[in-house]
Amino acid sequence: MSPEIIGAIGLVVMIxxxxxxxxxxxxxxxxxxxxxxxxxxxxxxxxxxxxxPVDVLAKYDFSAIPLFILMGVFATHSGMAGKLxxxxxxxxxxxxxxxxxxxxxxSGIFASISGSSLATASTMTKVxxxxxxxxxxxxxxxxxxxxxxxTLGIMIPPSIALLVYAILTQQSVGDMFIAGFLxxxxxxxxxxxxxxxxxxWKPHLAKRGEKTSWKAKLLSLTGxxxxxxxxxxxxxxxxxxxxxxxxxxxxxxxxxxAYAFAKxxxxxxxxxxxxxxxxxxxxxxxxxxxxEALGYFISVSRLSYTLASWIGxxxxxxxxxxxxxxxMYFLLGLFMDALAMLVITIPxxxxxxxxxxxxxxxxxxxxxxxxxxxxxxxxxxxxxxxIKAMAPHIKLSDMFRGVAPFIVSDVIRLVx
Length: 416
Known about the structure:
By secondary structure, the protein is mainly α. The chain has a domain at 61-265 and 382-415. Helices cover 78% and strands 0% of the residues. It is built from 20 helices and no strands.
């Protein structure tokens, strides 16, 4: 049996394992080891099992991951999210749909620290949903706003997904972060416009917010200072070469901890934050170990290079191939976590993208945007189910109806 056929069988088996709810990291690691042994020799698989942990854990760039996670955990435990929502609510006070716009704005700003869509959606739901229900927002629409706002966490720097993509494809982390900034901001603006259009078209969805004075609006800007400071320090530092992404993550984590300490976090809170960071980091690194094993297997099977050569020889426009790849990402996004999706597909898709002549940074942004769309699309939009777990009294069907206008907004943004 040729190595290419073994590689194709391995990918099919891995997808079946994921569909059967086998943990993604375990599915990748198992298929990678068995497949590598089948193509080379069992002793080769054992040698790879010995080498992979060192290859992954010893990479300096990967040390940024737990630091960015720690920064987001400190921000969550310090009460930043509540102050952020209150600040944005005051700024947009008096505008119909102001709480919805505040939910989008605060989600986008919080995403600039958390780096995770699911973390952003869950945190902002705790803070914003009770207020939105209190002021008469239709529950499904309120959940749709927060689910859409949560997707911004995967795009707005410092995004864990963009960081992992950059490392796996050997691209500049700084370039990926800078490239993701404008699409992330565009998403925040388009979501806000969507809220304004919907509440004018269907006034029963939301009541007009309480009017606030200009003095209150100006004073509320102080609630944005911690986030703005951390974000500017990290992005400006990386952009101007003052420090590496890992050093930027360390600075961000320290500033976030300093704010949490000033707001009352002590030893117990610090301990809880570190434990939470360790648990989340372990999940990510186990996934990266599996991705490394799968990458070795795909490489020795020459499956990706064979596919790239075959696609390159087709009389088909590269744009058609790109659309097919993005459609695959969209389908996977219906039932898979964004990070898992990227680490599974990159070993196969990336050589094809290079062979077609597309810029890898540009493709990374487009791919993440497509993944972002899958996070809120029925039947398995993961952000919706995260919010459903926190708001069991709201019907799932109402949530999906509430998020539908934001799906349209995302499709328009992807085309742009």
